[in-house]
Amino acid sequence: MRLIVIFFFLISSEYLPAQNVYFPPLNNTAPWDTTSPSSLNWCNSRIDSLYNFLGRENTKAFILLKNGKIVLEKYYGTFSQDSIWYWASAGKTITSFLVGKAQEEGYLSINDTTSKYLGQGWTSCTNVQEAKITIRNQLTMTSGLDDGVPDDDCIIDTCLKYLADAGTRWSYHNAPYTLLHGVIEDATNTTVNNYTQTKVKNRIGMTGTWLPSGSNVVYYSKARSMARFGLMISNNSIWGTDTIMIDPIYKSQMINTSQQINKSYGYLWWLNGKSSYMLPTLQNIFPGSYAPEAPSDMYSALGKNGQILSISESQGIVFVRMGESPNAGQASIATLFCNQIWKRINELNCSIFPLNISAFEATKENQKIMLRWTTENEINVSHFNIERSEDGTNFLNIGSVKSNRQGSKTYHFEDALKMYSGNKLFYRIQQLDKNGATYYSPVVPISNNNKIKVTLQPNPANNYISINGRDLNRIVIVNTSGKVLIKKDLLKGNNNHLLDISALPNGIYTVILTKANSNTEIQKLVVQ
To answer: How far apart are CA 384 and CA 199, in angstroms?
Structure first.
């Protein structure tokens, strides 16, 4: 009997909610408890800075939860708590959850071939090629179907063409994902809206609906409903005392590396803290984490135009961003925009740089890296430790500088490191006060010497641009929705390239330039 009791405790403890997590009432019109920013030592001026940044980037709604309670909630313009907005590809994570629930209830196995539910001939592949595609491949973006077709959203068989064996190639391809809804509906014998309603929405107080959008099916809801879904996922798929999904294996697989090609992708979730990552529309593998400013355990639901649901279980944080496309440049790429938001969340703490640091920079000088930082009104400081990282997460102490003890001063530190393996190094300053208190600066990155030095001229442009840079092998131009409009391999050995852009409508675009060693540079291009 004792063994049985112990076994039951071990199994049941798998489903216990984390301690001190708050869950709002299922009645979504009831009040949602809040936590004051001051209780977290967050400065109002820095919150205003975060809100201003989000406003400049065309945000409509932003919510941040700490252990389930609302700390920050901001709406812009006429958008309100009751406004409805689309999740775009962030809604893929709901589908991922529904697949796991359907497997838990015995309706399907993710190892089943997709043809079992959609019927043979759902692609234009041969029967042998098609039979290799499983539900797991749809969840992991490894179907092997060609995403380079004219319409990669198209779900009819003639658009679904063989490019590689399933499981051998990662590519962000909407069509195979969208067909998961057909798999769920055939397996459960109900609509995906009904299945979402009974298995998720009713049990966590979530609202919203799936609606067709061209070939896609997109989820629409209020911002708080997205926050509810994130809170449930962050708490091991438990809501209060209700375990929404029991299966511990699927829950773990969903938010961990699902294949070894793109290590930062789970079952339709984007994973931080991995050794490399890939991006939609590209086959490049980039070293490091896609969001070095975020906690290494962070995972996100990311969608077109910067729809973001981001979760860090270690920090008890869930945040939601809904809105129009961020301004062009790095912010127009969802992974980079997510990273920028986390950077500003990290800076909310009043304990970071209490000395009113007026400058902190890292520059290359004569094959060495020089760090400079300036303090104002310095009081009671013992010394500063200088820390370096190759991944933006794991830092090593490389030296220290004694405090000037009072007043203001500019400090210098020379890092003699000449060679390093990654594309970037990351630096931060640890301040140690005489009373033992410690504070950290924001992280400052500096690029490898191999970083591409490229100029685009003219910019703004209308018909042609001249690209000047060494060892370039590819240029990709994407619009603010992330759609690739131009992809061109460049002639090797030529440092000057002329590109016809006359087909591009007036607007702002992101230019991704790739070097022979796979290093990349991102620039903004204005066409007018």
So the answer is: 53
CA distance 484 to 205: 38
Give the model's pLDDT for residue 255.
97
Q: How far is 134 from 131, CA to CA, in rounded Å?
A: 8
Residue 28 structure tokens: 């979504």
Strands 286-287 and 276-277: antiparallel
Distances (CA, A) of 293 to 143, 370, 379, 443: 31, 22, 29, 8
Contact 226, 310 (CB under 8 A): no
The full length of the chain comes to 528
What tokens does 525 get?
Answer: 């291009």
CA distance linking residue 318 with residue 311, whole number of Å? 5
Distance CA 429, CA 292 (A): 16
pLDDT at 481: 63
Taking residues 1-12, report their average pLDDT: 36
Q: What are the C-alpha distances in Å from 282 to residues 27, 148, 169?
A: 43, 11, 12
Q: Rounded to an integer, what distance in angstroms lies between the CA atom of residue 306 and that of residue 333?
A: 7
Dihedral over alpha carbons 262, 263, 267, 270 (to 10 degrees): -90
Task: Give the integer Cα–Cα distance in Å for 476 and 106.
Answer: 44
What is the tens place of the pLDDT at every residue in 22-46? Answer: 999 999 889 999 999 999 989 888 8
Burial degree of 256 (CB within 10 A; 0-12, 13-18, 19+) = middle
Using DSSP, state whether 419 is helix, strand or coil: coil
Residue 312 identity (one-letter amino acid): S
